[in-house]
Amino acid sequence: MFRPPCAIACCSWPREAARPRSAPIPRARARSRGPSAITRRGACSSTCRGKSCTAAPDSAGAKLFGRRANNAQPAAGAALLLRLRPSRHHDRGEGNRADIPASASVRARHSGQAGLQGGTCLRKMFIGSQGRFSTDLDFTGVEEHDHEDIILEMMQAFAQPFHGIQFAIPDGSYYETQDGLSWGVNPTYSHGWNASGVGEVKLQISRRETPTLPTERQPQSEQSYFKLLPFAPAEIICLALAEILVEKIRACHQRNKARDIYDLSMFATRPLDQALIRRLVVLKLWQARDSFDPARLIQKFQDGRDFDWDDLRQLLNRAVVIDRERITADCVRGFGFLANLTDDERMLARDQYQREQAVAERLRASPARG
Length: 370
Known about the structure:
By secondary structure, the chain is of the alpha+beta class.
């Protein structure tokens, strides 16, 4: 069963068998789901009463967790402390920044069926404190799952406080999109040392595509506060770094949030698997029926005018200076390889109507590493 992505075990789990590194790139499956019983915000089944977070009967707990629901000890000791954006009531200075815990105990092991991605993943797993704050936790579903079961399971996990932190899922805080391809939930939390009251963690889970590359188990980047935690920081199942960067490139191609180009700039001067990243960018945009014009993207990087830089300011420490010229110049140099399309990539980049199926299959069959 798919396990709640907000509750990630910090103990050792059996490693799932990974595909060989030389395996072909598999087809990214677009999920076409029929109408769901939940197509509007907060319209969950009667077992999901939000604010009380009362544990379901033992039969439901046994179904979800394989053990009695009233057993307060987690089978896998699940916990994760994710530093997100600072509280609006606190200064963004390093010394006064507020940590937002996204921690919960869950009564079964995390089976790695959802992969963390996005800005939080880059900060927590790859960049550390150099990265920007993030406003949510983005996951990609690896297997089919029912979000109603997951919300119920989260409520089971939230029935008891975790290290003094009390979580809840208020009415109206969970939703599924009308097309059934993504859903989300915004658990609240409270604790004695949060003077501002109740905080919120935003979880977003996408079912639009399965990851193209094998997911990876990553340790969190070392942080100074780790030694103060009453639990070991978890290793987290994440998308492969190359795939996370491809999603950021696709985001820059399709929208104008400065957070995306900022994230890319953190890797623009690092060694990258250029052939793999370029191939995946072409494939993912083709799967979305979007043509890819690398020259236009590089020009967008160079100009920098289309990006909403105010969007980025609120996600950085006040002491950080946003050097737009450096950010854009690094991305122009670091991702200029996107223009070096092969013949197959060039053909697919122009194929907005997905006529070149054979070309797409050839690119998918290329080695998973360029």
